[in-house]
Design goal:
The complex is a heterodimer of chains A (540) and B (529). Chain A is built from 22 helices and 4 strands. Chain A is mostly helical. Chain A has one domain. Chain A has a two-stranded antiparallel ribbon with strand order 1-2. The two termini of chain A are 38 Å apart. A two-stranded antiparallel ribbon of chain B has the order 1-2. In chain B, strand 1 and strand 2 form a beta hairpin. Chain B is globular. The relative contact order of chain B is 0.10. The chains are: A mainly alpha (540), B mainly alpha (529). Chains A and B meet through helix 18, helix 19 and helix 22 of A and helix 5, helix 6 and helix 7 of B.
Chain lengths: 540, 529
Amino acid sequence: MMPKLPAWEEIRLVLPEIGLAVGMCAVLLVPFARRLSKSVPAAAALIALGLAGFFAVDSLGVSGRSILAGALVIDPFSQFFKVLLVVFTVLVLAQWLLAGKDRISAADTPDFLCLLLGATAGMALMASAANLLSIVVSIEMASLPSYALAGMRKLQRRGSEAALKYVLFGAVASALMIYGCSLLYGLTGSLDLPTVANAVVSGFSPLLGLGVLLLFVGLAFKLSAVPLHFWCPDVFEGAPTEVTTFLSVASKGAAVCLLTRILWSFGAAAAAGVGGERGWNLLVGLAVAVAALGAITATWGNLVAMHQTNLKRLLAYSSMAHAGYLMMAVGLIAISGPTGPAAAKLNLLPGHVAAAVLFYLLVYLFMNMGAFTVVALAAQQVGSEDLRAYRGLMAWSPWLGVLLTVFLLSLFGMPGLGGFLGKIYLAVVMTKVGSIGFVLIAVLLFNTLLSLYYYMRPVYFMAFAGGSGAEDDSPLADARGSLMPSLPGAVPGVGVAVLVICALALVWTGLGGGSGMTKDYGLIWSPPGQAAAIVSAESK
Amino acid sequence: MDMAALLNWMIFLPLIGGVLCLAVASRQAARQVALWTSIATFVLSVILAAGYYGQGYAGVQFVTQLRWIDSINVEYRTGVDGLSLPLVLLTTALSVLVVIASWDIQKAAKAYLALYLFLMTGMLGVFLALDLFLFYVFFEVSLLPMYFLIGVWGGPRKEYAAIKFFLYTLFGSICLLVVMLGIYFFTPEAAAGGASGGGQNTWDMIRLQTDPAIGALFARGGPHWGFAKLAFWLTLIAFLVKLPGVPFHTWLPDAHVEAPTPISMILAGVLLKMGGYAMMRITWPFFPDAAILFWKCAAGLGVISIVYGAFCAMAQADWKKLVAYSSVSHMGYVLLGLAVLTRAGFDGAYYQMIAHGITSAMMFFLVGVVYDRAHHRQIDRLGGLWLKWPAYSGWAAVGFFAAMGLPGLCGFVGEVMVLLGTFQAVGNPGFPTALVYTYGVLAASGVILTAGYILWMFQRVYMGPQRAEYAGYEPVKGREYFIMVTLGLAALVFGVVPYLVFVMTNPTFDGIMKIISVAVPAAQTALGG
């Protein structure tokens, strides 16, 4: 096929990414005009994000198409994620303005913003990537700026350690993934994901299996799935809080989206009747393997989180647990479909999974954002992220305490808050695949019970311990007066705004808001010739 | 006013009051807000009862039904029937007394009262929700204020007690959630009439009880009989934790001992009833065939709770712990009365819940009055209180004797009816005579054990010579007398006129017994008559 210039139609659909790329350049150019300014580059970054957000919303209605010779897929699933991603990055910027700005010098500000926008662009591409090349490129584009972001506090040993660990882990994972992709390309002669999927499902061989396995290694690294999770707590603890926030949601969310797309390309192949019974059995194995990996990751994360005394580290393990929950449901998309053996045996549609994933990410964004923002604010006051430092927070700053409680309860899954419905939707997906699903539900609920203990520990320190002030040796004792009456005073209005937005969003989603929206946009593109064009959760 | 709207206002009025409590300037103002909110809620519940009387106490009334979460067919569905109304009245009436009992709480009084009012919304929501999903939301949301009320305002080991309470009850909730997901998955088959897919699932609790198509799914030999057996146990465990029944009762003594007095009152008076109520609303009517199959185990757990709880109570040196274990013993009658599947047993179990709501709240309050002054609860360090405060002790006698089951007081009716109902089960298919008699005799011995530990405690605390340290105790206040007298009179009234409850519940219970007894012939054939 002759390479042809992409039409304007196709360019229009990647405008969000282009907006971010232009923003990257802009923030680097700003210092030529205004040296050592923090606010001007920040404004430029916000404008870029605003443009990207606008174009992403603009393309929400596109009902799924493959562009740029199959390199990217634009469908409501990817575009909705990009909208979430942009909203989230704006909130991260707000958090940075609020708490992190002082820790990053003016000279570093453009670098920070450029890296942030670059990582965002990479993650947006991950949600759309649909051939081996664009998968590798988008993962690298998301990873490389993340390494640098993790070490943004250049003079801190912990930050440098975090960045180095991240780079080393990432480099190995990337190498393995690229090796896997080259195997797949060599064996199938195509970079195109649907073609590769067809080849794997119809004519499975050990070498192809190795290729797929190595491809998943790269994803497992981004998702911090066991056994590739070791970087996660150290990086999350060592990185500046706003970077941790960013990585915990955006990076994992993008990886979940990419995992969803790759698994669905396999599922779509089987749904189109490729591979017959043997192919179907293969996919059941794949689905169970991914779900089992998710279950192990979630359980491991929850068990280890129980022993943490640093709130950032605790939230790092908690983010592992949430990635695990998502993987448990996302794995099942490989055995979904409107036609073929999937339809004959199960009642699961890819749209169900996509909608559940989007809703979970929507909620997860706000609850993690909120929790980390409180961490950032409290750390600013007491200079510590240790759980004991939160002793008596409820008495000194009831608002901060109550809001952190709300975020933690939502992370745990208290009914009435978004986290609960998120888990319910994942469980509903699992109910549709029979006995495997019920095992997964049991694991999910068991993990929820485990997680209660560690999500309640900060609350225990905030509300129950200390507070009387008598034998108090916590750093917050000195912060008395500066933290309590401050909201909404000394804590900047931005902070109040971020926290209130997050809390309201959780209540809104907890009462069923957003469910319809994510259901409408939970549409995932199917390659033509594999399954009937596009599949919504409605159609059955 | 439209009664359905009034019902919803009643659920959420305490929530509004709670927010207001946080907003007002002073503690005193917050107390007034809480008091008037609880009184207003009580008045609304009385109006609701009057409206229900106007409908002839028939079935489910004043239903609100709104689409809520479409993608999984959740509805906001509330309404009242004979099973919920007496418990709603108990909740609202007791709440007024609890707010009065909380008058002297000084530590963060505004937050305390706000949390208490949030708890009220949770409790009323549990009793009035008719959608299983909504029920679950209220069931779980009511945990949270309790967690803080015990954890912040409790005694020395409050943190331990609070997290234990939370973890235990959450474990129960998760068992319930598994059943809910199963119901979500299986009920579309009822609508579609067979094969999977097609129909819409339902969370409507009344339909889940009464729809024969759904009943057939979970009937013995039905397509999901295996699930029904599992679900019976999961829901039983979920609500046994709350009830609490042996072996899931160990959170209760800790929670009660650490909780402040008013919170103990509401915990024993209403929160435990959520367990019994949910069994009557969900476990038994949803899975009647499984209930027949497993009646021996369920009734056995009830009997063990009665006897074991009574022995534990007898062994306690801590007065409040004694009362806490007496709750385990008394709630055992609820489980036994349900498990034997007779009308008298069912009525007795329900009456036992109402009676226990009155007597346990009163007992905890009586303990609290002394604890506020003595600052300890060791039974052997007390004695001769009758000489110090004859009037208080007289009302204490009413409260403790009502709990003991003295004829003429409310505790008697429930216990006797449960025992009668147990013996009535003799001759029913699947109910071996010897086993029924064994259960009956053991449960009846629980009455004697109860008399034993209560009278022995009464003797050690109230009889004998007065102690020297009583001289410094402040006299019992008028506010405290008000609570005691109200509860004491209630114990008396409901001991003499059980009709007051049964007139509300009878038509509803007829319906529930029909669901359970419809299942009896099916079991008859299966068990070989």
